[in-house]
Amino acid sequence: AQSVTQLGSHVSVSEGALVLLRCNYSSSVPPYLFWYVQYPNQGLQLLLKYTSAATLVKGINGFEAEFKKSETSFHLTKPSAHMSDAAEYFCAVRAQGAQKLVFGQGTRLTINP
Amino acid sequence: DGGITQSPKYLFRKEGQNVTLSCEQNLNHDAMYWYRQDPGQGLRLIYYSQIVNDFQKGDIAEGYSVSREKKESFPLTVTSAQKNPTAFYLCASSIDTSNTGELFFGEGSRLTVL
Predict the structure, then answer these.
(1) Cα–Cα–Cα angle for A59, A79, A9, nearest 5°?
(2) d(Cα B8, Cα B11) in Å, to the nearest integer?
(3) Predicted confidence (pLDDT) per residue in A58-99, tens digit
(4) Do A64 and A54 meet the contact criterion of CB atoms below 8 Å apart?
(5) B50/A99 Cβ within 8 A
(6) I need a labelling partner for B10 at 20 to 30 A (CA). Which of A1, A27, A86, B79 fits?
(7) Is the dihedral of CA B83, B113, B42, B20 positive or negative?
(8) Is the separation of the CB atoms in B68 and B48 below 8 Å?
């Protein structure tokens, strides 16, 4: 069975600081991995996805994530936080051959001025 | 513009009433999904459909029903059998259910039971 764990339901960083949101997955076969962002009372928007090509994936808004098979991780980073990055972030996994996308619990990112 | 339209955005319902949430997409996607979102619980899959006139139960289908009579439409009915229906409901679509296909989401519908 596939599952995903996001470490930390809330993360707070200062504007200009590094953003690191953690995601670990559990899958019996190599997975496909996704990061989504959600602003209040809106739907989810895709930030980036890993589909077994390059392990370092660049997404929109300056975010990137690195797939590390040995650590079963897909952490999301951004070198310098902006106030506009304040939102909820979801990691999701789909194992090869699976029809369903499984989401983590979400991490709420707060940016301090 | 292509996208997914959910309506209504806010809905209030009395206990014991059924309510239907609309989801329409003009992306020509084959697959459509309904998720429920509760604070601190992420997104949980209610139903999904890979093709017209076919759909499958997700992880929390009890108390919900769907139909897929047209490719572009996938309405969700929250029945009176759903014990705790107050939540934020998200509709999504993808080109198909292949592994690499990402989901595109609507803006959501917030249902409150009074």
Answers:
(1) 80
(2) 6
(3) 999 999 999 998 899 999 999 999 999 999 999 999 877 777
(4) no
(5) yes
(6) A86
(7) positive
(8) no
Task: Report which residue type is found at A89.
Answer: Y
CB-nearest partner of A100 from B4, B45, B105: B45
CB nearest to A90's CB, from B43, B56, B100:
B43
Q: State the Cα–Cα distance between residues A102 and A56, nearest whole angstrom.
A: 21
Q: How many CA atoms lie within 13 A of B81 on its CB side?
A: 7
Inter-chain residue contact B40 with A9, CB threshold 8 Å: yes
Which of A7, A38, A44 has the highest number of chain B CBs within 10 A, making it the mutation to test binding with B? A44
Q: Report how far residue B55's alpha carbon sits from residue B67's, in angstroms, rounded to the nearest whole number.
A: 8
Amino acid occupying residue B25: Q
**What are B29-60's pLDDT values in tens digits?**
999 999 999 987 889 999 999 999 999 999 99
* Rounded-to-5 percentages of helix, strand, coil across chain B: 0, 50, 50
Q: The tokens of B79 are what?
A: 């029945």
| Distance of alpha carbon A34 from alpha carbon A40, whole angstroms | 20
